[in-house]
Design a protein that fits this description.
Number of domains: 1
Low-confidence stretches: none
Distance between the termini: 79 Å
Helix content: 40-55%
CATH architecture: 2-Layer Sandwich
Strand order of the largest sheet: 1-2-3-4
Order of helices and strands: HHEEEE
Number of helices: 2
Length: 140
């Protein structure tokens, strides 16, 4: 009789309790949530880097346009950007505006299609960049 009850107890101890499984599931859920939040931030920063690259290309195209036409372009579509893209993607809307005397210009990228992130990245004819949100990295 004693041997039989010992076998039952040893079988019970070999399995996990419901509370142990619940604790493991909660820990995995917390870690997954933290990982997803970090992943979203990394992806958003990459979108910002892509916008910065596009703005740099717009700046160079504006300089070339100025050398050819002695004025800056009013619209990004007037610039010869080649394969780089259009004035809007799924994440940013790009625009450029020359000053009234046409000696300076600024190009901007405005974040679109996002509930959490909103911001603007701008560049001028000298290559000076500004942003309204620290999530978007400005290269030094």
């Amino acid at each position: 009789m004693l041997r039989h009850s010992f076998l039952k107890i040893s079988k019970i101890k070999k399995s996990f309790t419901m509370i142990e499984i619940l604790v493991v599931v909660i820990i995995i859920s917390i870690l997954a949530t933290l990982a997803i939040v970090q992943y979203v931030k990394v992806v958003e920063k990459q979108h910002g880097r892509n916008a910065v690259s596009y703005l740099k290309a717009v700046r160079l195209a504006q300089v070339r346009y100025y050398m050819d036409n002695n004025s800056f372009a009013d619209d990004i579509d007037e610039l010869d950007l080649g394969y780089i893209g259009s004035s809007e993607d799924d994440f940013f809307q790009f625009s450029t505006s020359p000053s009234t005397d046409n000696d300076t210009f600024s190009a901007t990228a405005v974040r679109i299609n996002s509930n959490k992130y909103s911001g603007t990245i701008a560049i001028n004819q000298d290559g000076d960049m500004t942003t309204t949100d620290e999530i978007y990295p400005i290269p030094e």
